[in-house]
Design brief:
The chain has about 130 residues and is mainly alpha-helical. The chain has a domain of about 70 residues: Roll (Membrane-bound Lytic Murein Transglycosylase D, Chain A). Helices cover about 30% and strands about 5% of the residues. The longest helix is centred in the N-terminal third of the chain and has 13 residues.
Length: about 130
């Protein structure tokens, strides 16, 4: 094994983290795993995806050569372990749009009456 300076190791680590330097793909499906793939959606997490697949978290991580710290992103393709069936719950139906209705009072108050009501709720001593 070749020894490298700490600077070279740091630069190589950063390169691997951002995908600049060739290295093992983080989160890539393991070569020995026979799997069905699916696409990660916004809000997904490893544990949620394992629940959708009906498998344990460790099995889901193992099928994708990942750890619980491996970041997953929307649009990314992942594997479901062999023998598992991936099923997302149905999407909710959006509620019908409701148009707000303006409700006007039946009684029209004079300016003096309106002022009296406002003064009752907000006394002058609070208007400093």
């Amino acid at each position: 094994m070749t020894k490298h300076s700490p600077l070279v190791r740091v630069v190589a680590s950063i390169g691997l983290a951002v995908g600049v330097v060739a290295g093992p793909a983080v989160g890539a499906p393991s070569a020995h795993a026979s799997c069905t793939s699916f696409i990660v959606e916004r809000g997904d997490s490893w544990s949620l995806l394992a629940d959708y697949a009906g498998v344990g978290l460790s099995a889901m991580l193992r099928a994708n050569n990942a750890t619980s710290r491996t970041v997953i992103l929307p649009g990314q393709s992942l594997c479901v372990p062999k023998g598992a069936a991936f099923s997302r719950p149905g999407t909710s139906v959006e509620a019908e749009a409701v148009t707000p209705k303006l409700v006007l009072p039946k009684v029209r108050l004079s300016a003096a009456e309106s002022t009296a009501i406002i003064r009752e709720v907000f006394p002058d001593k609070l208007e400093r």
